[in-house]
Amino acid sequence: MRTQQRLFTLTLGLSCLMAYPAYSQTKFTSEDRAFFEKQMPHYTRWLEEYNLSALLSFHELKVASDSVVVYLDLAYETLDESVTAWKMAKADFDALNNQTLEEHLFYHLLHLLEIEASECSIELFSSYTQRPYAYIGLYYDQGTFQVITDFTRNVIREVPITPLYLKKIQTASAMLDAPAVRDALYGKVRAFAQKFYQDKNAEIEVLEGDQAGDVRLHFRIWNLRREVLVDEANPLLARILNQFGYQLDWQVTKCWILI
Length: 259
Known about the structure:
Blueprint: H1 3-6, E1 16-18, H2 30-49, E2 56-63, E3 68-74, H3 79-96, H4 101-113, E4 120-125, E5 135-141, E6 144-150, H5 179-198, E7 206-212, E8 215-220, H6 224-227, H7 235-243
Helix pairs in contact: 2-4
């Protein structure tokens, strides 16, 4: 990263950093299908590792010419149990992690399958044969992660459910060594930060398919306004923190990348 760029560093959350060869625009082949099927046991083990297997289990993988759909079972017999368990697990999981339960389910699968987000979707069902049932769909459309729900009944009764005791998703820091990758990432973050400060209602962006050499970046920038503090913009907060001994350089903040 150039010297002047080091003076402008940000705190951000990186939901996924993946380096893999990009799939061409041709149809998925039989070799692709075999690879996808090989990866599903890894997805099941990931669910087990974080105690999500008590809520969800793998049901089926369907590969079309240009898309992959993974079906998951909600591991409860009735609609009321399924919806109550899902809402309880989601609340607990979201409180522990920077991303939602839906996002982690989707992006971890995407990482394993090594395909574009727009080519992948997840469908969760409490039953495939009878109504009423609970349905949750996870997919990517026009640059935005989407979640749709259909509980097929207006009134859901809350029923007793044993807590799942979900685990926090492990994170790690990483350094980007390739200059082209660092420059590409820095440019995206700087542009977003400028927009975020100028537009008070700026929304979090998800960027897909940005390439720098043979490395592809997929990252999400979290609330920079809450993390990157400037003395002139926050004089009261600066004085308070400095009084408590937090002598911070308000112009330079380290960049932490969380995978």
